[in-house]
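Re: the request from the purification team.
They wanted to know what the chain is likely to look like in 3D before they choose a buffer screen. I agreed to run a prediction and write the result into the notebook, where they can find it.
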Amino acid sequence: HPTSMNNTNHLISGDNKGAASQLFERSMDPEYITGQGPFVAAFASTNLGDVSPNIKGPRCMDTGLECDKEHSTCDGRTQMCVASGPGKDMFESTKIIAERQFEASKTAFMNTDGYEKLSGSVEFIHQWVDMTQYPVDLMNGTVVTTCKAAMGYSFAAGTTDGPGEFDFTQGTITGNPFWDFVSGILKDPSPETEACHAPKPILLDTGEYTIPYAWHPSQVDTQIIKIGKMLLLAVPGEFTTMSGRRLRESVKSVAASLGHDIVPVVAGLSNTYTHYVATFEEYQKQRYEAASTLYGPHTLGAYQQQFSYLADAMLNGLDVPAGNPPEDLLGNQISFIPGVVFDQAPAGYSIGDCVQQPANAMPEDTVVATFISGHLRNNLMLEDTFLKVEQEEDGEWITMAVDSDWETRLHWKRTNVLLGESEVTVMWEVPPDTPNGNYRILHQGYYKHILRGLTPYQGVSQIFTVGIVDSKRPRKPAQKVNLVEKFWSLIM
């Protein structure tokens, strides 16, 4: 899981997968800015439903003792039972896990001994299926069906990578009168739905919530992409380790019966998202992943049957009915996030002014600069950056790092809500191999003028040095503006 950055983190982050991608791409294209080189390294998710990067395991944060293994609790509550590691904090842990993934993948990528070159056709097959009533054939000859979507009590307990709130715990197989009453305000599950999901006690009957629109999908897409002998099983959720293993075995068995030697690979979280997929046995324990298995205890069985059907059709060159796609709800989305009304700078300053200048630094130091800013939601700067770390070379400023680099962080805060004043603080952890020289930090974005609307701005810090530099550059003070000029800038 990309959950090295825990649920106390407020920074946008690609977590350990994103950091591993950056390390790989930088090793292949060292002269390019992050994300702009020709080599793309993608660390994709497979059946990671119950796999954690926090390898120190869960401990009680108040005592340091092991958590209760059955329910992942400390003194009966989940909040203090948190997994961590291998680093001293989430940032170091993310870096270590990313480096391990990068190093192993780079070794495999460069050492091609024993590789098998893929050959053959490139194909795909896709079908929408109704996962709320999918018939599943059991080994004893009986037929059962999947259920309308519902979330169990242990869903609200979270996991040791990110505990939930209140008194929910993992492994809960009985309801609670208080929480049954609270969830019943939305809608009580029908007796049929409760029976279908047993032993899961239903907390949220999401499959029957339709206001303002359906809370969870009923029509789900299933897909296989064939590249030679490799079959990518595009599954719409997070399969646990054993669920993924069983799915691969089912597809491989079908292919073998047809005389095909294939390599099935689970491509997790593809196309749509239907939470987790646990095995039937895992479902009986009702830990977080099982409580988050939307369509009941036979969800995995339905996917095994469906992907076996798709594989059989594909390998036999047959078409399958397209199925019924879900309603397009893109135009019906609602948001509870208010829009930005306006931005302005404090008296005596302009938006973009650097109010905390960076100091000279050595490699492995942290450089900090603070700027008067607009609201970052005015423009998300997609395919761009809110910050640049620039080095002076022959009179020109060359970009060395941007906001997507691991060594940079940007914190935004609204310093005055009524007056629309904001600041961003840029932090740059100077890499050990950073060359000596003159540097500066640039912040850019958009502010919202009450009359003119969105306006781009840019601010630059004073020059600072990294390492030992012979020539000293004068520091440029934070700019001030005339108050009369400031008044007219707000109304014009």
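For the purification team: Confidence is low (pLDDT under 50) at residues 472-492.
Please add any questions underneath this entry.
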